Amino acid sequence: MLKGRLLLNPDVKVLKCEGGWSAVISFGNLLIAEEEFVCRLLDKMNVLIHPGYYYDFWNEGYAVLSLLTEPEVFEEGIDRLIRFITTGI
User: Fold this and answer.
1) Does the reported pTM lie above 0.85?
2) Given CA atoms 55, 57, 63, 66 in this order, what sign does their dihedral have?
3) Rounded distance, CA 59 to CA 31, Å?
4) Within 13 Å of residue 52, how many CA atoms lie on the same side as its CB?
5) CA angle 25-73-56, nearest 5°?
6) pLDDT by 10s per residue, the chain, length 89
7) Domain extent for 38
8) What does the alpha-carbon distance between residue 41 and residue 44 come to, in Å, rounded to a whole number?
9) CATH number of the domain that residue 26 is part of
10) What is the total count of domains within the chain?
11) Which residue from 33, 27, 30 is spatially nearest to 14, judged by alpha carbons?
């Protein structure tokens, strides 16, 4: 579900995972710092995700999404994330 919907935007990629409670997205093509990206997303869309540096990613352009969220809430968050990216950060 997540991967298919985010693939509609060529600037965002869902990284392959082998299990766990999180999904990682890459948005390096958007040319925005992780912290600014997640702060704007929280401020404008009321969606909380973590910047990649919380998880020791060395490069900018990653964010981590929890997969423990209720399905309806998660889906609404993904809709807001997509709207946020496509309408211009």
Assistant:
1) no
2) negative
3) 12
4) 18
5) 30
6) 554 555 556 677 888 878 789 999 888 777 788 899 899 999 999 999 999 999 998 888 889 999 999 999 998 998 898 888 888 76
7) 2-86
8) 5
9) 3.90.1150.10
10) 1
11) 27
